[in-house]
Amino acid sequence: MNVRETAFAILKKIYIEKKLATEVYPSFLEKLEDERDKRLTLEIVYGVNRFKGRLEYVLSKFANKNRTEADIWLLMLTGVYQLLFLTRTPAYAVIHQTVEVAKKINPKVSGFVNAVLKSVSRSKNSISFPSKENLSDYIQYTLSFPLFLGMKWVADYGEEKALKIMKSLNLKKPVVFRCFKDVSPLKKDYIVHKTPYIEGSYHGNIPVFMIRAAECYIMNEASQLAPELLRNFKGRFALDAASSPGGKGFLLKSFGNFDEVVFNDVSVDRLEKILENSRELLLNVSAITMSDFTKPAFKENSVDAVILDAPCSGTGTISGHPEIKWIRTPQNLKSKTSVQKKMLKNAFDVVKKGGVVVYSVCSMEKEEGEAIVSDFVSSVENAKIFEPFEYSTENIRRSFSKFYKEGLGLRILPDKFLDGFFVAAIRKE
Ligand SMILES: C[S@@+](CC[C@H](N)C(=O)[O-])C[C@H]1O[C@@H](n2cnc3c(N)ncnc32)[C@H](O)[C@@H]1O
C-alpha cells in the first residue's frame, strides 16, 4: 500500500472500530519503509481527524454525501485535506494519487472523484466558512466539532468558554517532557525551552526517540499535576491504581517521598507497557499488581495515598487525539462514569485514615470529574475535598490556583500548552 491508501485504511479502521489512531496506525506504518512516507501518512490521518467538519463542508459544495459511497466519501476527505492544507504537494499529484486509490475501491467512480477534487482545487480559496452568528454551523464546520459535543460544552461552560475550549483543542501542542535525571545531555544537541506552568518540565523541537533516549518522559503539564499534588506528602506506600503506561507513577516515584509506589492496572498488556517504559527510563519499578480496580482487591486502610487517574472519555486530549471527536457519541461519552464511581470508592477504602486520594481524568466532561467527586464526598461522611496545594510546591500553587474551585477541584481548561483535565484531592478524615 502507498501513502494515500494507507492513510485511508487507517482512518476507515479508526471510524469503524472507534479506536484511537495510536492503537491503529502502528501495524499499518510497519509496511511503509520510507520515514517520509510514514510522516506524510500520519499528517493526513491526524489532519483529517482534526479538520473533518471543515473538510466535509468543502466537499459538500461539490458532491452529495447521501449519494456517495461511504468509502469514497472518506477517501475524498483525505484528498480535500491535502488540497487545503498540504500546500507543498502539487494539486495534480494529490488528485492523481487519490484517483488511483479510488480505482481500487470502485473503478466506476474514479472519474467522479477526479472531477470533484479538481473542482475543490480550483475553488478552495473562495470558500468562506460559517461565522459565530450561526452557532451550530460554526461549531460543526468552522471549528470541526460534532454538534452534540460542542453544544454540550456550550451548556456546561457557557458559549464564550466553550468556543475557546474547542479552538484550543484544535491546536497542535508542543511536545512537553519531564526528565527524571538531567536535561543537560539534550541541551547539548537541541534548544530546550522551559514550559510555562511546571518547573522541571520542558519542550522543544526534538525527535521523540531522542527525548526517550535521554531518559525523559513525554507528559503534558496537566497530567504532571496529579503526582505534583502529592510532592510533599510523605508516606510508606502510594498506589497508582490505574497506572499504565506509567507516567504519573514514574513522576511520583522520582520525588522519593514514598518508600514504595505500587503500580496497578487491569491487564497484562497494560502492565507490560509500564515495564517497557520504566526500563527505558532506567527507573526501578518493582511493585506491580494486576487487578480490576472496580472490585476490592487491596486491603482496606493499607496505603497512605492513591492516585486514581481513571479511564474516561479523553475529551481533554483532543489536541493529541483529534479522532476522539468522531469516535465519541452521545451514547458512549459518559459510558465510564459507573466504573469511575466504583474505582473512587475503592481508592478511598484502600487509603488509611489521614490519607489522600488524588482523583483525575483527562476529560472536559463534568460528569466524569466534578460530579464524580462531589457525589462521592456528599455520600461519605469522612471524605473531604481539600485545597489541593497543601502538599504541592509554591510553583504549582502559583501556576494552577486560577483553576481551583473551592470544595471541588481543579478544572484545567486547555490552552496552547495544557490539555483539558480535572483533578481533585480527597482526604480520609
Ligand atoms: C487514563 S489511563 C492511566 C494513565 C496513567 N495514569 C499514566 O499517567 O500514564 C487509565 C488506565 O486505567 C486502566 N483501567 C481501566 N479499567 C481499569 C480497571 N477496572 N482496573 C484497573 N485499571 C483499569 C487502563 O488500562 C488505563 O491504563
Describe the 3D structure.
This protein has 429 residues and is α/β, with parallel strands linked by helices. It folds into 3 domains: 3-126, N-utilizing Substance Protein B Homolog, Chain A (Orthogonal Bundle); 135-169, no CATH class; 220-428, Vaccinia Virus protein VP39 (Rossmann fold). Helices cover 47% and strands 15% of the residues. Strands 5, 6, 7, 8, 9, 10, 11, 12 and 13 form a 9-stranded mixed beta sheet that branches. Strands 2-3-1-4 form a 4-stranded antiparallel beta sheet. A hairpin with a 3-residue loop joins strand 11 and strand 12 (409-412). Helix 1 packs antiparallel against helix 2 (21-29), helix 1 packs across helix 3 (35-60) and helix 5 (91-105) packs antiparallel against helix 6. The mean pLDDT is 96. It binds S-adenosylmethionine. Residues 223, 242-248, 265-266, 270, 292-294, 309, 311 line the site of S-adenosylmethionine. S-adenosylmethionine is lined by residues 223, 242-248, 265-266, 270, 292-294, 309, 311.
Give helix % range.
40-55%
Q: What is the top-level CATH class of the largest domain?
A: Alpha Beta
- Specify the biggest β-sheet: 9 strands, mixed
CATH fold call of the largest domain: Rossmann fold
Query: What's the N-to-C terminus distance?
Result: 60 Å
- Number of helices, counting only DSSP H or I runs of 4 residues or more: 18
Give me the CATH superfamily of the largest domain: Vaccinia Virus protein VP39
Average pLDDT metric: 96
Number of strands: 13
Ligands in the model, by name, code or SMILES, are:
S-adenosylmethionine
Write down the overall geometry: globular
Q: What percentage of amino acids are in beta strands?
A: 5-15%
The total tally of domains equals: 3
Q: Which structural class do you get from the secondary structure elements?
A: alpha/beta
Q: Whole-number radius of gyration?
A: 23 Å
Q: Which residues form runs of ≥5 with pLDDT under 50?
A: none
CATH-level-2 architecture of the largest domain:
3-Layer(aba) Sandwich
InterPro entries: MeTrfase_RsmB-F_NOP2_cat, MeTrfase_RsmB-F_NOP2_dom, NusB-like_sf, NusB_RsmB_TIM44, RCMT, SAM-dependent_MTases_sf
Enzyme class: transferase
Protein name: 16S rRNA (Cytosine967-C5)-methyltransferase
GO molecular function: RNA binding; RNA methyltransferase activity
